[in-house]
## 1
Amino acid sequence: MQIRQTNKKFNFQKDTTFEQDIDPKQRAWIEVRGKALETNVRQLRSKLRKDCQFMAVVKADGYGHDAKVVSEYAIKGGASQLGVATLNEGIRLRSCGVKVPILILGNLYTKRDLIISFENDLMPTISSIGECLICNNIGKHFGSKFYLHLKVDTGMSRLGFECSKFVQQFEKIKSFENISIAGIYSHLSSADEINPFDSKSVTQLQRKKFQELLKKINLDKNQNIKIHLANSAGMLLNQDFHFDMVRIGLSMYGYSPLIKSEENFTLKPALFLKVKVSFIRIIDKGVSVSYGGKFVSTKKTKLAVLSIGYADGVLRNLSGKINVIHNSKLYPQVGSITMDQMMVDITGSNDIQVGSTMVLLGSEGDKTISPLHWAKESNTIPWEILCSFKNRLPRVQVD
Ligand SMILES: Cc1ncc(COP(=O)(O)O)c(C=O)c1O
């Protein structure tokens, strides 16, 4: 058999154009609600003293929302600084025209990365004298100061100078002429867990340790060094955690990390996950659904097939544990979630057709499904749920 040859060259350019013609809402997509982000930042900021700054944490592509959109609306809401995890995340924001100070929360340890950070006006997090020295040399080489934040470890045991050695090390750091300390910070390990209000809790002890350290290093007020400790949970505890700046992620996206919370405002989810029904079938009683036959119908059942699966970021261990919303009614997901699709029991409905839109996360009428529900059901945390969504899901901005 002869295989027919074609002289036509595969044209990637054309192929990409073709892809762009596909309606982003044709299959499954994430709606990013800019106004909700802006309102959340505004509400959260109203809890801060006037001189306390708000750093919007937009790492991991803005917790899966799209860092560019999140940054834009967070700044509109009053965020004055941004926090990213990696060099590339920072560079992307700079290339989008973001002008506010950006702190890289992860560690840069090579000279090359630190030079790129300097060249893009990104402040690195520094955890050792060795890293300080590299930054000082870079500043000297370029003939200007390298702005950076020093991190101290008060109990997270991740990045940061050891508290017990920091006082002495700080004296040396102050002698480096080509660095400018823009901030000193630490990170809370357990503010969203157990009982952070208890004076003997890890969270309160971390705060005390941080405060004692700051007293010992005798800071020069004129240097405008920003002191910061709180993430969302720390910020919502009380003002003792606020210092000069707070670094806020989860609550800005619309979810409270606190088990017990005394908030007197409502955070608005900035992410809705939506999907189209791609097929409808009726099955008899006793028919198994999806891989492994984990669900067997107990009656004649109407099934909707939704075009979304674990390759999009809907965790497989949520199989059979979640609902979806259509016209303010909840419908249970049944059978194993597959790579690209999942089934929903829509028995009794007569308003769902192929092409209908269903809400997996978000609200419709009086029904709401939150990443907090999913996290509970899959024994994880809402941060992981938000960061699971893959690029296959187009992000569609809604104001
Ligand atoms: C150093 C640091 N600060 C702040 C945050 C924001 O935390 P949250 O999302 O709980 O507000 C994070 C997130 O992991 C972080 O790593």
## 2
Amino acid sequence: MPEPSHFRRILILWIALSVIATPLVVILAAPGLPPGDATSEAAGQVTDNTVLLGIATPIAALLVVYFAYALIVFRHRGPEPDEGVAIRGDNRVQLTWIVATAAIVLFAAVYGTVRIFGDSGAGGGQGPNPIAKPSGDPLQVQVIAQQWAFTYRFPSFGGVETPHLELPVDQDVEFHVTSLDAIHSFWAHQLGVKADANPGVDNVAYARPTETGSFDIRCAELCGLFHGHMFDTGQVVSDSSFQAWIRGQQREFAPATRNLNPYNRGYLPHPERRAG
Ligand SMILES: [Cu+2]
């Protein structure tokens, strides 16, 4: 019996599996990918994860098909065979490999660079001079990390500092993330925001909530004994609810606000405070 064309068989199996699996993965699995679509930044990250998953599916399918095919068809049966012919290089295989991998890597590099300047990149801490930023006039919220809680300061509302976070829906938010002591990280998962909090540093990140609801806030940098205690639930609310909330906070914390340090983009650690 003549040797069948293994290459053609694998190619057909691979194409068939890719054609079936890729739409299933992209349509069924991708919409559930983190971090969801509560903000334009989060939704941008889901889009990027979907694209990467769409590219990765045929690659994974090729590995699975080849592995299964080799296990079944290339399995040795019968007596010990003679040693095979030494194969040294194959121009077609080498060329295909170089072209295919170069195309995938270059696409990922260009795609990633373009996307990081848009919504997808705006949720990451960009330092004091952000590149990806929304147009218009965002609401400024300073996130102040400290052992072991986040507090929030609103410079456009008299510099009031609040222990919890509420945000208005359909409004760009400009987070200014900083720290009073150790290195922390402000991670608001469903907002698609994660930014390091360093003392004396103003780390800017953006998010535009597109739906009301709650979101998780966590410290994502081991920052001491009660690091695990640095979690809270924030709320995205309607603009009128937000206005009512922030006015209430201004009234409630008026005595504290008078005694706060003046609003600053970064605060240096208090030596006395660190000494305990
Ligand atoms: Cu922390």
## 3
Amino acid sequence: MLDPQSRWAQYGEKPDFAGLLSFAGAPYTEDPAELAGADVAIVGAPMDDLVSDRPGARFGPRAIRAASCPPGPHLEAKIDAFAELRIVDYGDAAVVPADPQRSHAAIGQTVGEVLAAGALPIVLGGDHSIAEPDVRACAGSAGPVGLIHFDAHTDTGQEVFGAARSHGTPMYRLINQGHIDPARYVQIGLRGYWPTEKEFLWQRERGITSFFMHDVRQRGVAEVVRETISIVGNEPTFLSVDVDVLDPAYAPGTGTPEPGGMTAGDLLWACLTIATEVSLAGMDVVEVIPTGIGSSDITALVAERIVREALTGLALRRRRGASEMA
Ligand SMILES: [Mn+2]
């Protein structure tokens, strides 16, 4: 295992801009044997072959890693996820440019290796089509998982421009394949002009819950998140965060931006709360198209903090579980 912090050990932390690029300077490995004992593994899924509009999300994983800040206590939650949990950067899945099928297979395999080691996968996209292999791997043989899905769009299209495999169709495909329990599937942040009533009818027939932006505005994010947590219950649930759920003011670098979205503060709080309260089966953060270099990129920066809030929530959940056992 490579420790990107080792040369800076006397200072306690590595400068963000220096050394091997790993998530938050976490130990880096591509060897499945070295995952033993890990609680969480970060996996990059750098592919964007299946977008309907702007490409560039293949650069997301690198930019999110570059936007990392060093480990340390979360000022408000008062806990350091990197001290509480063993977090490893497992590198990128071996995607193949212009071959989405092989890229999806590689993502599924890499996420499967994380799960086989007993660790929780957090996948950095990539376009949203990567949810198909990563949710499928997390559902695995255990049967369907719940899904909390932050997005401007439902991604339940049967096709987009006639293409069945697209960043607009993963949730439709996963439900049809039996990997998501529609009664435990909640969408948050919907707005704009896609999809059509046909897709919403299909969703309602399956009992999928949809919170639109007017719900977030009128009822408040705290109430929407509270209701979401009660719908998914205690069973394993996947958290999928498309950064286009954010208003483009907070995440301008994304494949299909839609004005009128959530604030970064609301989304970060929601991710922290969900990771604390829900039994997560896995997580992804997708559709990040970096527009700048390193930590100057707004979208990569907020995507990195989405993961950090979730890690802090997992650490709080671990500590709470330990105190309940005591
Ligand atoms: Mn999406």
